[in-house]
Each structure stands twice: as structure tokens, then as C-alpha cells.
Protein: Mth938 domain-containing protein
Amino acid sequence: MSSPEIASLSWGQMKVKGCSTVYKDCKVWPGGSRTWDWRETGTNHSPGVQPADLEEVVKKGAKTVVIGRGMSEALQVPPSTVDYLKKNGIDVRVLQTEKAVEEYNALAAQGVRVGGVFHSTC
Structure:
């Protein structure tokens, strides 16, 4: 399965190619996507993205994970989260969301088994 292209991004809205849902925050992986609901893991801007937010993306086969920290990079990514990915042999990229989407789409276009979590507001 290939990683789906992120078709569009604007403040508070993301669309993934092949999916009719408009996401505020989303998770993508080889073969799919869904809403990233922070309430599932108790995620907040600080301390930020937790390993639990990424487990699904890793289990669905991503070998590279891109984390979009928001348009103004308000979403934190603690070292423990990066360490979790690296310990699982996953390459990780942490970027401002617009740059993260560009990186994700470039990797997906190259056939990389890439996944990610993206915050589309602050």
C-alpha cells in the first residue's frame, strides 16, 4: 500500500487524496488516514505529541513518520516521543505543518512508506 497524498492544507482544514473527510488534525499511513483526536490520548500543545499518538501510524507500516507541529509550531514534541520512534527503527521528521506536508508528500511520491500526524491550526 502506498501512502496517500495530502491534497490540501489551510488553517484548520486538511484533505487527503481519496478521502472525502475534511480534517482539522489528521493521521496518515500507508493505505489510509483518519482524524487525529487528541482526546484519545489526552494530548495537549504541551507537553505535546505522545508515543500513544503515533502507535497506530507505526503499526500500520510507516517506516518514516512526519510530525506537523502546527502553523505557528505551538504543538510540542518531547524527546521521549522522538526516542520512541527511533527505538522502533522509524526515521522521524519534526516540522512546521506546511513544511511537514511538503516533506510528507515528497516522501510519499518517492514510494517511501511514510506516515504522519499533522496539526492544522496554531
The chain has one domain: 6-118. Residues 51 and 80 are 8 Å apart (CA to CA).
